[in-house]
Amino acid sequence: MMMNAFKLRLGWVAVITILFCATVASGAEKLRIFILAGQSNMVGHARAHTIATLYASDSPRDKELLSMVIKNDNLSRKVLEIQLKQARKLDELTGGISNSKVKDLEEGPEKTNLEKKIAAMKDEHQGYKDLISSSCKISDRVYINSIADRNKKAGKLGVGYGADPSKIGPEYGFGLSIAEKIDGPILLIKTSWGGKSLHYDFRPPSSGEYKLNEKELAGDKVEEIKENAGLNYRLMH
């Protein structure tokens, strides 16, 4: 499941529009510019450590992805399996994301000892996650300017251009793979807002005036709705 989610974000799929925009002369080399525009899938909600699940695959394609993304020889399938086992043990101790097994215990030595054990295991597991993130390559040729939801930043392409500084989106796999196929500097311009409508929020002027439905017309925000039609389209310009 985690591996499939990572592949999905690496792939050129989902609600993604990747448009070759322009080439700009820069000395002897041309700057290739790509625009990546989309909604929640373009924002990017994959944690960087999920990349390591590719070690569980024997697929030649997945092995190529690993060599493209990871630069640490200390990571392996064995390391992954140990950490997955550790994660399952944590779930057994805590009751999973609800933490129910800890919450249900009465205050006392048993609960205190369990909490200490869980904290130590979480610290160790977090160290593994941090190792994966720090092992992900940062490109020297691909730069990105991202205006994703809640995470606006620019710089060399690496981990951190997803929904928050620990996440990745389609920009990561796309940028690294396109760099293997073309020469010269590359700029990615990423724009993404989750939960938006192409019909309303991204409505271009060429589509004409937005027509309110009966419910909208009956409400008290008619002028506000009209004014905000196409707002996200305008924000991209």
Task: Describe how the helices and strands are arranged.
Elements: H1 2-10, E1 16-26, E2 29-38, H2 40-43, E3 46-47, H3 60-69, H4 77-94, H5 100-103, H6 109-135, E4 142-148, E5 151-156, E6 167-168, H7 170-179, E7 186-192, H8 214-218, H9 222-228, H10 231-235
Parallel strand pairs: 2-7, 4-7
Antiparallel strand pairs: 1-2, 3-6, 4-5
Helix pairs in contact: 4-6
Give a quick set of tags describing it.
5-stranded mixed β-sheet; 42% helix; two-stranded antiparallel sheet; 3 domains; flat; alpha/beta; disordered N terminus; single chain; 237 residues
Brief overview:
The protein is of the alpha/beta class.
What's the β-strand tally?
Answer: 7
> What fraction of the residues are assigned to beta strands by DSSP?
15-25%
How do the helices and strands follow one another from N- to C-terminus?
A: HEEHEHHHHEEEHEHHH
How far the N terminus sits from the C terminus, by CA atoms, comes to 37 Å
Rg, Å, rounded: 22 Å
Write down the overall mean pLDDT. 85
DSSP summary: helix tally: 10
Structural class: alpha/beta
- Quick one: biggest sheet? 5 strands, mixed
Biggest sheet, spatial arrangement of strands: 1-2-7-4-5
Low-pLDDT stretches are 1-21
Roughly how much helix do the residues carry, as a percent range? 40-55%
Total count of domains: 3
Give a written overview of the molecule.
- The protein is of the alpha/beta class.
- It folds into 3 domains: 2-71 and 136-192, no CATH class; 77-134; 205-235, no CATH class.
- Helix content is 42%, strand content 19%.
- The protein is built from 10 helices and 7 strands.
- A 5-stranded mixed β-sheet has the order 1-2-7-4-5. It has a two-stranded antiparallel sheet with strand order 3-6.
- Strand 4 (142-148) and strand 5 form a beta hairpin.
- Helix 4 runs antiparallel to helix 6 (109-135).
